[in-house]
Amino acid sequence: xxxxxxxRLYRHGHSPVHGLPPHTKLAATFLFVVVVVSTPREAMxxxxxxxxxxxxxxxxxxxxxxxxxxxxxxxxxxxxxxxLMPFVAEGERVHVLGLSLSESGLxxxxxxxxxxxxxxxxxxxxxATTELRELLLGLQRLKLPPLLVQIASFMIRYGDVITxxxxxxxxxxxxxxxxxxxxxxxxxxAKSAGALFIRSYERGERVHLAMISRGYAGSMPVxxxxxxxxxQWSHALALPVAALAVCLLGWAL
Amino acid sequence: MGPVTTPASPASLEVSGLxxxxxxxxxxxxxxxxxxxxxxxxxxxxxxxxxxxTLVLHLNGILGGGTGTVTVxxxxxxxxxxxxxxxxxxxxxxxxxxxxxxxxxxxxxxxxPAAAGLKGAALEERVRHALELVGMAxxxxxxxHHLSFGQRRRVAVATVLAMEPEILxxxxxxxxxxxxxxxxxxxxxxxxxxxxxxxxxxxxxxxxLCPRALVLSEGVIAADxxxxxxxxxxxxMRAHRLELPFGFDPRTVAPPARERA
Lengths: 253, 261
Hints:
The complex is a heterodimer of chains A (253) and B (261).
Chain A (H helix, E strand, L loop, with lengths): L15 H4 L2 H16 L6 H17 L4 H8 L3 H13 L4 E4 L2 E4 H27 L2 H10 L4 H30 L10 H28 L16 H23 L1
Antiparallel strand pairs in A: 1-2
Helix pairs in contact in A: 2-6, 2-7, 2-10, 3-6, 3-10, 4-6, 5-6, 7-8, 8-9
Chain B lengths: L10 E11 L5 E11 L3 E5 L6 H8 L7 E6 L2 E2 L5 H7 E4 L3 H4 L5 H11 L4 H14 L15 H13 L5 E5 L7 H13 L3 E6 L2 H7 L2 E6 L2 E7 H6 L1 H6 L22
Parallel strand pairs in B: 3-8, 3-9, 6-7, 7-8
Antiparallel strand pairs in B: 1-2, 1-4, 4-5, 9-10
């Protein structure tokens, strides 16, 4: 209880980017990532331009560079593989600082690293400027399967409830002198996880009962219509359109 | 012996000969008969396992298939009128975390009416009005899990009020509430202009709010009468495992106001 009133990725603000309707931002981010991914890896300058484009968005969204860079750390486990590629890939070798590296491996690593980083940066910007609730409305508006949106919205609603339940179970365990140390105690933790699953499952049944009592018949009624004007769409799509121009240049040159 | 009813007054709820056994063979109800007149506030008392929850789930047709009938404002509960019945019978479940499943209070209160097809300004107005009735209008944009338990219970009542029900059914409304929240909820319930059926073990609360009480025990209505008289009948109380809190004597409490008798 009393946790933050928004998710941790979100950065409260009233910038022009914050103000855009969520579905335009979602569409823009998605298109931007598609364009970035389809850029030839040899056009290294293009990725530099993409980074500048994102920096411009971040500036307008008043998201500080430090915040963005810290959030980028989330990709570290995913790009670890990319670092290995120059060492293990086949093909022509080049020598850098006494290390023998594969040339195609280097290109592959660069490809993953550059595209991955730009994609994550775009997502971080989206998350920093859009509340979770709005994201869901945006997804709904973009006609994502309603069941998926419902599942996501229940995750948001019940995440805290279940975390709280988990915390109470941990306190109950510890109050009776239990402390998880080593493999021998995993059994207890596994049983707690099982109990938590059953409790959550039963809560699901009770929630469903409450829903049908209020007239639920399989689909969520639309309560908030989100709409976007032509101007808002063009502002949001400025990013992927600029990126597309860069991408086409990258292929042409 | 419905104390304040006359046969001519319209019934919000009529249950007759209701019997029900679960698929595993456990029989929970053995022929339940009672009638609640429009505007009445009635307490349904009974020990654990008396079949109270089973009865409640029959009122809006979630359970069914046994014998007997349930009629809400003249409409029989059954497949044909299910949507209307669920609008007319507003059930407030015991755990508000089960009842409030939407990301914000406002959307949760809007859920029922929106499912029934209400839109736009009319929907906004309905939500605002329901939240005002329970004094939670300032919390419309908050997520339910950031409210106190008492506030969540009040929002749960609002979610049901927003559907403009014929009868409000409350399952253990006072459970887990501190005394101040208890009193606030009582004030709200007293101010509402709907029929109320309140399922509870909390006998002082029943006496405070409901002029009439039913005792459900072992699947039948064992007693029906003015709440004060039932609670003062020590033999009846003992026979049905109903116990008053220590030091509480219903005979010394002023009877509840019969404002709509």
